[in-house]
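Supplementary Text 2. Reproducibility record for the structural model of the 130-residue chain.

All settings were left at their defaults, and a single model was retained for analysis rather than an ensemble. We include the record here because the model underlies the residue-level annotations in Supplementary Table 4.
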Amino acid sequence: MISRRHILVVGVAIAAFAIAPAVAGQRADYTPAAFEAAQQAGKSILVEVHATWCPTCKAQTPILSKLEAEPRFADLAVFHVDFDTQKDALRKFNAQKQSTLIVFKGVNETGRSVGATDPLSIEELLEKSL
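Retained model, structure tokens:
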């Protein structure tokens, strides 16, 4: 027999999973079409140029994950550019190094940093996209 407690626990779990995507940034691999669509929609955008072998990129990952989970960055569209394989994107964004973070508000670039691992400076950069 199912008790009220079981129903309540299941209901809370379902609600938690339903709310979780609403407070997380929208992450995707970079494609020109998706990036342009986000720009045309006027979204706040982060372009993260990374490489799997890069220690600075690895240091940025938990900082970005924590910030992207905050409600104020819920609508942030995050595009990952692979430094080793997406050379066209590197040229488009004039990104010469991995660990480059670039923020946009719609079609306008509002800030960038290279090699930042200080949580406060990364947070300030993301705020420039709002």
